[in-house]
Amino acid sequence: MVDANLNVDDACVVAYNRLKLTKDIKFVTYKVEGQSNVIVERVGELESTYQDFVHSLPQNEPRFAVYDFDYTADDGITSKKIVFIHWSPDNSTVKNKMIYASSKENLKRRFAGIHREVQACSLAEVEQREIAQALR
Amino acid sequence: MYGGGNYYADEVSGIVLDIGCHLTRAGYAGEDTPKVVIPSYIGMIENPDPNQMDVEGIAPFAGEKIMKYRDFMKLEQVFAEGGDKSEKLEEICREAIENELKLNPREHPFLLSEPSIHDRESRVALTEMMFEKFQIPAFYIVKSAVLSSFASGRSTSLVLDSGAYTTWAVPVHDGYVLQKSIVKFNIGGETITDVLLNHLVSLGVNIRPHYTFNKTVKCFVEGGEVQGNPEFTLEDIPRPNVDPSYQDFSIREIVRDIKETTFKVSDNTFSETSFANVPSSSYELPDGTQVQLGNERYRIPELLFSSGIEGVIGFSGVHQMVYDSITRCDMDIRRELYGNVVVTGGNSLFGGFTDRLHKKLTELTTQNMKVKLIAPQSTIERRFSSWIGGSILASLGSFQQMWMSKQEYDEHGAILIERKCP
């Protein structure tokens, strides 16, 4: 696996564990800072909506995110599933695309218990029902 | 020191080398485009006549030097079937590194791209060559489809790479090439060039390469303005000692340009009746002769979407390659692959290529399957996507710890590349 070998800030895993274990946040977004560090960019409060999350993603720059998704199965049973999102809009620079794509595995493997991963390159691909579809 | 746990501060720039079947690209990591793009051909003169010795010495020739006419010079493709590739490979690397980039390979780490089919033997040989013949301090190798996929911002995608001699459909999942699902055919841009060349020959067109004549232009200038039409005069230069391979190479350069400037992929399946009235397009050959091209401008590139290529068994279009490759992958990831088809390679640059591919793929798949093609608009990005990906990767400060260092090579041997660059 080709790995850009970026440094992952300890706070990244701390925030993830908060989402997974303490369950007092809804989502976390991560950004690459200075082409060398992966840091926490934003933590979404428990009250925040999925739209709040989508709005926190920049239009022309990639991001990583984890989202504690409320999922309703066909039989009506609801549950929470953690989704890892690789946000990579097509109009970001080739440089940013390359940096994020070659760092994704390195970040993701630190997060135990990811249920699904979604790669989204346009707003349509990050819509709520697309995520629900991926969880199916 | 590179790799091996020792941090290397990025004082010197890495070099990125992408050796294709037709072109070799080389340049500095961190730059947007390769500085050097040379044909992957080596010129040889066997038993040179000492009386006609070239000022530039004797063979082998590469790069700019093969563009110049030389008596008896024979051109060989670096990756030609049969024969020993290693010497030619070394020669083309030497040309790109030492003569074109004009740098000392001992001072720079090198990142190379390799074909997507994992071939332990050739990557070990390449590692050995770089450390032994060029004494490089550090090395890394990445599969070409992975670089193209990452450069498009995707760690999972289906990369359709149509080059000069080969077309690949390569599924990449989480940054790994799914080896068993690769579909490869020996067709590409040069297949189309071949067909056009044969067509022109059948029309009786005489394609005269630049070295067979001298062209002079005469025109009258009065008061800074050209008066009347300029007059051309051609003077033949007899070249009895031209090698057929050089003649072929030069003719193909011209035919390739005709193809690139006039050919288009049609929106719908080509048929003689529906394309009977397409306006013809004219092309001026180097000697001034005009060639008229009618519906063959659409008919010939149609071969990329049909099964009519002579001598290529089992090929029934590039869309079918994508479909077959995805069908060989696990059910769970097919949806994602169809939604992320990365189109790259010079042969995909025909106008209408991606639209047609999208249409054909949509026809092949089930109704609710979303097909999305990702094709950079810029010619440069499309032709050099893996080089560009490598350039960004090798320029990252954090990546400097990933190289396989000379020290590691000396300790463990070339086979360590399998662990360092899995």
Spans of at least 5 consecutive residues with low confidence of chain A: none
Characterize the main sheet of chain A: 6 strands, mixed
Mean pLDDT over the residues of chain A = 95
Share in β-strands of chain B: 15-25%
Oligomeric description of these chains = heterodimer
Q: Which second-level CATH architecture of chain A applies?
A: 3-Layer(aba) Sandwich
- The name CATH uses for the topology of the domain at 2-40 and 78-146 and 383-420 in chain B is Nucleotidyltransferase, domain 5
Number of helices of chain A: 5
Describe the protein.
The complex is a heterodimer of chains A (136) and B (422). Chain A is built from five helices and six strands. Chain A is of the alpha/beta class and 136 residues long. Chain A has a single domain, classed as Severin, CATH 3.40.20.10. The mean pLDDT of chain A is 95. With 422 residues, chain B is α+β, with helices and mostly antiparallel strands. Among the domains of chain B are: 146 residues, Nucleotidyltransferase, domain 5 (2-Layer Sandwich); 115 residues, Actin, Chain A, domain 4 (Alpha-Beta Complex), CATH 3.90.640. Chain B contains twelve helices and 18 strands. In chain B, helix 3 crosses helix 10, helix 4 crosses helix 5 and helix 7 crosses helix 9. The longest helix of chain B has 19 residues. The N terminus of chain B is likely disordered. At the A-B interface, helix 3 of A face helix 3 and helix 10 of B.
In short:
By secondary structure, chain A is an alpha/beta fold.
Provide keyphrases for this structure.
heterodimer; A: 136 residues; alpha/beta; Severin; 6-stranded mixed beta sheet; 29% helix; 33% strand; B: 422 residues; alpha+beta; Nucleotidyltransferase, domain 5; 12 helices; 18 strands; ADF-H/Gelsolin-like_dom_sf (chain A); ADF/Cofilin (chain A); ADF-H domain-containing protein (chain A); ADF-H (chain A); actin-binding (chain A)
How would the blueprint of this fold be written?
The complex is a heterodimer of chains A (136) and B (422).
Chain A: E1 7-8, H1 10-22, E2 25-33, E3 37-45, H2 50-55, E4 63-72, E5 78-87, H3 94-101, H4 104-108, E6 116-120, H5 128-135
Parallel strand pairs in A: 1-3, 5-6
Antiparallel strand pairs in A: 2-3, 2-4, 4-5
Chain B: E1 15-19, E2 23-28, E3 36-39, E4 41-44, E5 74-77, H1 85-100, E6 110-114, H2 120-133, E7 138-143, H3 144-151, E8 157-162, E9 167-173, E10 176-177, E11 183-185, H4 189-202, E12 213-222, E13 225-236, H5 244-262, E14 281-284, E15 290-293, H6 296-299, H7 318-327, H8 331-338, E16 341-344, H9 353-364, E17 373-374, H10 379-395, E18 404-405, H11 406-412, H12 417-420
Parallel strand pairs in B: 1-6, 6-7, 8-16, 16-17
Antiparallel strand pairs in B: 1-2, 2-3, 4-5, 7-18, 8-9, 9-10, 9-11, 12-13, 14-15
InterPro entries (chain A): ADF-H, ADF-H/Gelsolin-like_dom_sf, ADF/Cofilin
Domain ADF-H (chain A): 3-136
Organism (chain A): Blepharisma stoltei
